Amino acid sequence: MSQPASPAVLTVRDLRKSFTLHTIDGRTVTSLHGVDLEVGRGEHVALAGPSGAGKSSFLRCVHRSYLPDSGSIVLHTDDGPVELTDLGDREMARLRGRELGYVSQFLAAPPRTAPLEVVAAAARRRGMTGSDARDAAAASLQRLALDEALWDVDCSVLSGGERQRVNIAAGTVHPPRLLLLDEPVSALDPANRERALDLIDSLTASGVAVLAVFHDLGAMHRLATRVVRFADGRIAQIGTASDVLGVAA
């Protein structure tokens, strides 16, 4: 197992995941073959590799969007280690609210909910209350340059890039212990991409552990303390961005 340089926030051992293709021919496809990994406090671990290599399956197993077939996923909290594969759905939902941030390419906001409320609700789940949560939400949206005129409109009317910035703000407000990123800047223009990457960089500097999937080599070179290259559902290589990806252009 690759060891982090700082105390572990996440420990994954022998993680295995397969899928049965019921709608095609019923065959089973294995996505993860016994993956081991640790992520430490203040680390940014980027997952690299071609489509289908297992990166997103690994990330979703950690988030428990996917339930693995077997293996161990331990989140190290202030109250001690928590085995995520043993938690019921309600307990997992509560833990996600407090300890995990998850930013995907797409915002899943409740109907008729405005950006400020989406982000403030995330802050409340992480322990903030009342006006403090709204102030933190406003600061997050300001940092990502979302026009204040949009803060109280339905998220469904926002552009793809605007929705992605709301998603990033909700995932990072009152920063969680572990931040999971799945192509978080794919819809952003260059200026807003820079703002988002600066924000992510500042979180690791303050001790947040980040586990991320990027197809953007520049982002991995800029942010990652370690890069983990997946191939055929296994970890093929771990090292610095330069070691794994080559020298940045």
From TrEMBL:
Keywords: ATP-binding, Nucleotide-binding
InterPro entries cross-referenced by the UniProt entry: AAA+_ATPase (IPR003593), ABC_transporter-like_ATP-bd (IPR003439), ABC_transporter-like_CS (IPR017871), ABC_transpr_LolD-like (IPR015854), P-loop_NTPase (IPR027417)
SMART domains (UniProt xref): AAA
Pfam families in UniProt: ABC_tran
Domain ABC transporter: start-end pairs: 10-249
Positions of transmembrane segments: none
Highest taxon, organism lineage: Bacteria
Sample GO molecular function, one term: ATP binding
Official protein name in the record: ATP-binding cassette domain-containing protein
